[in-house]
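User: Show me a protein chain along with its predicted structure.
Assistant: Here is one chain, sequence first, then C-alpha cells.
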Amino acid sequence: MAANGKIIDLRKRLAERFPSSPLTKATRLFTGLPFLDEPIGGGFPKNAITEFISPPGSAGSASLVHAFIHSAYRDKCFVALIDGRDSFDPCTLPNSILRQLLWVRCTKALEAVKAADLLLRDGNFPLLIVDLILNSPEELRKIPQTTWYRLQRLVESVPTACLVLTRYEMVSSAQLKLVLENSWNLETLEKPDAIFQLRIAVKRSHLKSAVPPSVAAGDPQRGKQWSVVN
C-alpha cells in the first residue's frame, strides 16, 4: 500500500509539473530535421515505439537528443529523457529549455525500463526518449522481450512517441527501426551544421506510409520548427 501511495503521489506531481498538451489527435511528431522526417513519413509515430540503432562505429546520437529537446522547446512541448547510464550533459542547455525537460537519471537498463513503464502510464509527454546507448549488451540482454511488448501496449493508449536509443537491434515490438549510418571525426563535429550530416536508414517499418530505405542529410534551412501533423 505504501508503494502504491508513492506512485500515485508521483503521478500527481508529474501531472502538475508537466500538464498534458491539448493537441491529442496528431499521429506524428515532426522533428524539423528533414533527413529524419522525410524517410519516416513526417516524423516519429505516436502510439508506437521507434528503435533508433546507433552501431558501435557510428556517432551523433547525443547530438540528436539535444536537437529533439531544442525542437520541443520551440513548440512548447515537454520531453521525458530516461538516461540509462546517467550520461546526459545538461550544461549546454539554458534553464528555459531545461524547464520543459524531465530527466530521469538511471544507472542500469532495468531501472530505465521501469521508468519508461511509469511515464507511459502517465501519458503526459509527447516524446519519451529511453537512452540505452551506453548500457552494456550483457545487461540489455536481461530485459525480456515481453517487457518491450508490454511497453508497446502502454504506448498504444497514449499520445506519445516513444524513442528507444540502442547500440544493437533489440526491441522486437518496435514498429519503426532506424539505423544511424555515419561516423564523425573531430572536423565534422566542429561544423555548425554537423547535425545535418547524419545519415539515417530505415531498417523496418510497420507503419502505413511507405519510406525509402535510406536518405542523406537535407537542406539545413528546411523545417526549423517542431510541430504535430495529422
